[in-house]
Amino acid sequence: MCNSTRLAALKQNSLWDFALDFYARPEVEAACLCLQDEAKVDVCELLFHAWLYRHGLEAEPEALAAERQARTRWQQEVTSVLRDLRRTLKGRAQTSHGIAKLRATIKEAEMLAERENLQRWQQWALTSEISSPGRLKEVAQWPCDSARWLQLPFFSPKFHSLSVSRCEEHSTVKNAWEVLGGQLDRLTRAR
Hints:
With 191 residues, the protein is mainly α. The protein has 10 helices and 2 strands, in the order ααααβαααβααα. The chain has a two-stranded antiparallel ribbon with strand order 1-2.
């Protein structure tokens, strides 16, 4: 269970605003794309966990499981379809103004799909103490290694087929986690 001060702070800082700010930090975009492409990490969920961490909170793994399935479904059925289409049109957009315009529209739709997904993650967190107590808890002890902490929700045996150690075998993936952890440490933590 989380205290009302942390929950109030969470309500004042939207996940979308946090995501835009965090994603714009040096090297974060490249790190997120690396984890998305090489480690199959859902960037929206990653940003969700980073947002919670900023406020001294984390999601309870058992409570997270059902929402993760719903968010994964959204990513597969909507966002990934748009992303794949946008990537497919990349080469053709360089030689055709019409395709470039279409690709830009698809990119905007992809961004709207990401925003919708983040809003659903936020709604899940903000309704946690009202409708389903026990979804969130305070971070018991601030970890020395934010990068490692950020990986835990993704590499718990219940949720992902990769392990942290197997994922760290790839230096680009390991570096991506370190970049995100380093940027996360610079944020002001809720008191």
